[in-house]
Amino acid sequence: MQIHIHDNADQLGARAADTAERTLQEIIAEQGYARIALSTGASQFPFFSSFVKRDLPWDKIEMFHLDEYIGLPASHPASFRKYLKERFLDQVPQLQKYWLVDGEQDPQAMISWLNDEISTKPVDLAMIGIGENGHIAFNDPPANFDHPDPYAIVDLDEACKQQQVNEGWFATLDDVPSQAISMTVQQILRSRRIISCVPHAAKAAAVRSTLAQTIDPKFPSTILKTHADWQLHLDKASSAGIFAWT
Predict the structure, then answer these.
(1) pLDDT (tens digit per residue) in 180-223
(2) Distance of alpha carbon 43 from the chain centroid
(3) Cα dist. 136→7, 28, 39, 128 in Å?
(4) Element (H or E) spanning 154, and its range?
(5) Which of 66, 109, 122, 142 has an alpha carbon within 20 to 30 A of 100's alpha carbon?
(6) What residues pair up with 67 in beta bridges, in sequence order?
């Protein structure tokens, strides 16, 4: 585990994008292509704004993403397909290939398709955010640490729903879907390298719990500490629970 603390969210996003760029260049030089998995959400804005400007051979990069609400139209402001289209896919149209989680399709058929596609080759770099309740992807507590399949249907807890409302994606708790298709914990851990961008004061308690608690499904992000190549990028606000800034 490596922990990097930056002055603010914009600097965090730029430095994490630096690391992602170097990592992908190395991987592509080694094997001729790279597979990435991308996290979404408001905390990832600074990373995406910097990452899409990088001089990478995008035509050698394939992308999966982590999750999508079941039943939510792609036109909805909270749709992660919409998020990725606007903030990533439209910015790097030369991307070799991508697979989007479509929550409007039959969930089991979508999961079967995704599981088949992602299982053909390993994910080389996964960008994994951490939720205020410690969720990774949409694996809310208590998370299933042992589910063997790459994607699964998960239930969203109240804390996760409230975060979505607080960030402005939905007007009320009742508007947030109760289920999502999510990359599983085991699939996240199969990634060769993991980078987590976790800025902002709202994440300070989650960061402290991730680092201080033992590995526990009740705080899913603690499992990231078991990965052999995990980088955690924080800013001064999100690191306030582990470091006293003066």
Answers:
(1) 999 999 999 999 999 999 999 999 999 999 999 999 999 999 99
(2) 10
(3) 24, 26, 9, 7
(4) strand 151-155
(5) 142
(6) 182
The pLDDT value recorded for residue 244 is 73
Report the pLDDT value the prediction gives residue 26, as an integer from 0 to 100: 97
**Averaged over 141-167, what is the pLDDT?**
95
Cβ-Cβ contacts under 8 Å for 216 (sequence gap 6 or more): 222
Helix/strand number for the chain, H first, E second: 7, 10
Q: Which residue has the tokens 């309740």?
A: 133
pTM higher than 0.90, yes or no? yes
Burial of 106 (0-12, 13-18, 19+ CB in 10 A): exposed
Long-range contacts of the stretch 162-165 (C-beta < 8 A, 24+): 163/131, 163/132, 163/133, 163/202, 164/78
What are the C-alpha distances in Å from 127 to residues 104, 130, 194? Answer: 24, 10, 6
CA distances from 206 to 41, 43, 125, 200, 233 (A): 15, 13, 23, 11, 13
Contact 66, 38 (CB under 8 A): yes
Q: What is the pLDDT of residues 102-126, one digit of tens each?
A: 999 999 999 999 999 999 999 999 9
Please name the amino acid found at residue 84: L
Angle at 95 between CA 224 and CA 85, to 5 degrees: 75
Strand order in the sheet with 61-65: 2-6, 230-235, 193-198, 125-127, 34-38, 61-65, 97-99
Given a contact cutoff of 8 angstroms between Cβ atoms, the answer to whether 198 and 233 are in contact is yes
- How many residues are present in the chain? 246
Q: How confident is the model at residue 246 (pLDDT cuts 50, 70, 90)?
A: low
Q: Which region, left, alpha or beta, applies to residue 19 given φ > 0 means left and ψ of -120 to 50 means alpha?
A: alpha
